[in-house]
Write the structure tokens for this entry.
Amino acid sequence: MHQAKSSLAWLSVALLVVLVGGGCTPSPYGDLGLVTGTVTYEGQPYPNAMVLFTPTAGGRPSRGITDESGKYELIYIRTTRGALPGDHTVMITTVPPPSEERKIFKETLPPRYNTRTELQHTVELGENVIDFDLEKK
């Protein structure tokens, strides 16, 4: 009986060590990194832009829309904020204004930021502030 109690005590201590000091601290955002930032174009805040982060290793992309001051926050799915950790290809496109007439919308931003994007970024677990200073050239 004494040996069973001793084994149970050691098992309890081992379990406590694994749970408390397992070597990593969980992110407050789960398995995602919270991503916020600002998009500027030619030095000015760029409102109404969609910022799309697509993981290069595959997986669900995250997206956000800039507000009037060019600030965005990525959404992973529905109301879940964040993006998968790792390397991402980033596309930034202008969101066309709503219109009753069917017009062809011309993208304001150069293709190197969207259709032929050159933008890459790494998302870490936890909080990430990722700003984009875009230029016409």
